[in-house]
Amino acid sequence: ARFWRDDRPEDVEWIVADNASKDDSCDIAKAAGARVLELPTNRGFAVANNIGLASARGVYTAFVNPDVAVDWRSLGALAAEIDSTGGIVAPQLVDVDEPLRLQPNGRNLPFPKRKVANRDVLPSLFPVRDYAVRAQPGERRQVVWVMGAAVLGRTETFRRLSGWDERFFLYYEDHDLGLRARLSGLTVTLLGDVRWAHSWARATAGQPLSRAHWYELQSAWRFYRKYPWLLSEWATNRLSSEPIATLVESTRLR
């Protein structure tokens, strides 16, 4: 509840799609003014997002994790950016306790080598090049995808993209959404002038093998089966600053 302030504008609809939580999350959300959609079983992140999207009545939709503090004052700037670009937009996420520390919630093409390097595995063998992106004040960084913790766009745009791919129970569904948007000609923008605080705690970071790791491996398998041309980048160092159509064709040809 600390992340949802009580000064929400009257014209902002707050929908909570609850994946069969076992605590008092639903009661807390209802008391705070949310319209709660209670799922009888945990059907995954993508399914819950799509159920929320189906019931959304506004022109714009923001998919926001419960550990993100929304700055309502920034909604006008985000809407203006969405109207200007016609694509997907995300605020620059920052740490809750250190708001000057920018989180890399913008990402470029998720070649496996970059994914490995981003976990600090053998950094000398797998150097990160233009993968994790942060937007400084005044910057509008064009990326391939943004973390699912905060993703905004026109409601009709998300519906035209068929929402989130429900084959992903957890992990990689944000990679897929951004990539589908880019391949359909839409932009994905990280907006540096808007900052939302995010209490980021990756379930697979520094932990032994767990169910979260299993979900991540399953989703990675599905993702790279869906986009096998990404695997061809494994042994190269091309940057995703090139037009994505060129990258798609070049990786398919190798």
Nearest-integer average pLDDT: 87
Number of strands: 11
- How many individual helices? 8
**Largest sheet features:** 4 strands, mixed
Radius of gyration using CA atoms only: 18 Å
Q: What is the straight-line distance between the termini?
A: 50 Å
General shape = globular
Structural class: alpha+beta
Q: Which blocks of ≥5 consecutive residues have pLDDT under 50?
A: 235-241, 250-254
Roughly what percent helix? 25-40%
Quaternary structure annotation: single chain
Any key phrases for this structure?
254 residues, alpha+beta, four-stranded mixed β-sheet, three-stranded antiparallel β-sheet, 8 helices, 11 strands, disordered C terminus
Plain-language structure description:
Helix content is 31%, strand content 19%. The chain has 254 residues and is an alpha+beta fold. Strands 4, 5, 8 and 11 form a four-stranded mixed beta sheet that branches. The longest helix is centred in the last third of the chain and has 16 residues, at 211-226. It has helices at 25-31, 45-55, 75-85, 112-118, 155-160, 173-183, 211-226, 244-253, and strands at residues 15-18, 35-38, 60-64, 68-69, 88-95, 106-107, 132-133, 140-142, 145-146, 150-154, 188-198. Helix 1 (25-31) links the parallel strand 1 and strand 2.
